[in-house]
Amino acid sequence: MNIFEYYPPLSFYFRVDFAYSKKKVPIPQHLGFSEVSGLEIEMETVTINEGGQNGYAHKLPGRVTYGDLTLKRGLRRLEIGSPVAAWCIQTLSQGLLGKNKLVLMDLVISVLDSNHVPVAVWSFFKAYPKKWSLGSLNSMEEGSILIEEMTLAYQYAARVK
Q1: Structural domain spans, the chain
Q2: CA–CA distances in Å: residue 8 to residues 108, 114, 119, 158
Q3: Are 37 and 126 in contact (CB under 8 A)?
Q4: Beta carbons of 130 and 105 less than 8 angstroms apart
Q5: In the chain, which residues have pLDDT < 50?
Q6: Alpha-carbon distance 121 to 117, whole Å?
Q7: 87 — phi, psi (to 5°)?
Q8: Is pTM beyond 0.70 here?
Q9: DSSP string over 42-80
Q10: How many CB atoms neighbour CB 124 within 10 A?
Q11: What pLDDT is stored for residue 123 in this prediction?
Q12: What distances in angstroms separate CA 126 from CA 2, 64, 104, 153, 157, one per listed residue?
């Protein structure tokens, strides 16, 4: 392939896979999402002022922080369900009931080319749900899809080579 014929991957062709963190058991169902956002890593900086030096301040690297992942898709019918949505709702409900059993998941987000081959892959470790929401129910809107949204926090992320 000629290096000048490279085409950047398209953002709409991706895949999300989940596995339980402790057991490394994959969720048996392919999970299609219409949108994934929040893929970000940021390094905080610490500013140190040097005594007698008013011309500049030293900026040193600090902690690395990760954004929350937001996954969106059309609501699934009850009988075909979603193990991930059930995990989110169950985890959030247990928090309300005072049960502190937190089940963590690892997830992999892959950007795919036209042949379904991963072009870029990121792993997110020890994720847990922070929020689950459903779009508004509005009888005046015709033909709009009811969107289910899940927000996940995670411990750390890494790009897979």
Answers
A1: 21-47+57-138+145-160
A2: 20, 11, 9, 21
A3: no
A4: no
A5: 79
A6: 10
A7: -60, -45
A8: yes
A9: EEEEEEEPPTT--S--EEEEEEEEEPPEEEEEEPPPTTT
A10: 22
A11: 93
A12: 40, 16, 5, 8, 9
Can you tell me the distance from the alpha carbon of 72 to that of 147, in angstroms, rounded to the nearest whole number? 7
How far from 145 is each of 42, 71, 76, 91, 102, CA to CA, in Å? 33, 15, 11, 26, 31
User: What top-level class would CATH report for the domain 21-47+57-138+145-160?
Assistant: mainly beta
- Describe the chain by its helix, strand, coil percentages, rounded to 5: 10, 45, 45
Q: Residue 129 in contact with residue 151, Cβ under 8 Å? A: yes
Q: How far apart are CA 152 and CA 150, in angstroms?
A: 6
CA 21 – CA 104 distance, rounded (Å): 6
Q: Tokens 């994934």, residue?
A: 36
Which residue bears the tokens 């950007």? 111
How many CB atoms lie under 10 A from the CB of residue 161?
Answer: 4
Phi-psi region of 126 (alpha: psi -120 to 50; beta: other; left: phi over 0): left
Tracing tokens 């999402």 back to the chain, one arrives at 33
DSSP-assigned beta bridge partners for residue 106: 19
Q: Which residues share a beta bridge with 114? A: none
Count of all residues that appear for the chain in the document = 161
Q: Distance (Å, rounded) from C-alpha 146 to C-alpha 137? A: 8
